[in-house]
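In this section we walk through a basic example: taking a raw amino acid sequence and producing a predicted 3D structure, encoded as discrete structure tokens. The instruction is simple. Fold the sequence below.
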Amino acid sequence: MSDAKVALGCRLFFETRLSVTNTFSCASCHHAELAFTDGRALAVGAKGDSMHRGAMTLTNVAYNPAFTWASETVVTLERQMEQPLFNEHPLEMGLKRDDRALLEWLAQQENYAAAFRQSFPQEAAPVTIPNVLKAIASFERTLISGRSPFDRYVYDDDRSAFSEGARRGMRLFYSDRSGCAHCHFGLNFSGPIVHRGKPEQRALFANNGSAVKGDEGLSVETKRPQDRGRFRVPTLRNIALTAPYMHDGRFATLEQVLEHYAGGGIHSEAIGTVDSQIRRLDLSAEEKRDLVEFLRNLTDTSFVARKDCN
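The resulting token sequence is shown next.
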């Protein structure tokens, strides 16, 4: 990490020349005002191809022990970026792993050439695809969100930040009765997180009843029958801005998500075994409103105000 590398990564994040059509960038699927998601049920590639799953938020990705919806092996941002840049079926960005045209163009732009030299001063020829990945990853690691009303209430003891309904929802969220925090715990509301110099952590995966035939989740990678229908538990930070919800965007609102969980995550097309921690909940209308109010108070407006690299 360095200031120069982060600045270069930010510019590359918004650079449309990183796509085969020269019209598509990382930011095309990760809009700051939507907590770096795209508002679609399924992401769309540079040529209009529909992806298998939705674009995940980049909120606090520096802390993630794994990336993508259903992989235990993609454990760095550099590795994660190989998927959108190089995938062919379906095509996302459409780059080649040694895209000569892109590298020549970057080297010919004096501002980019100088930025690569400053970011990777020990390399004689720093304009490389691996360095593109490293720079973008450095920028993404600066996307830290921690100033929501929840944070101000819990860490600053600012009681004006949190409504009474949000407080009731918070108590219910962390209660054994709802069980929400059994999966959505920790700093990121997504389970274990990584810290430099600390023991390795494994990402949390769960079958919440949203998987259907055609996308069997983690088992596609692991081939383990018990992983059928399991997807990575996503962060709830900025959740009010990242609709639609679930890996396939099946729910348009937080209220619909809550009804899914209140029903025990059971429906006729579900595959695999729904996790035992997910069970039917007898919640009143007021309790459901309080839970949604709590979730809406996880929105960090200063984080989503970030529009460009300035």
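Looking at the output, two observations stand out. The domain at 3-140 is CATH 1.10.760.10 (Cytochrome Bc1 Complex; Chain D, domain 2). The chain has a mean pLDDT of 95. In the next section we compare this with other chains.
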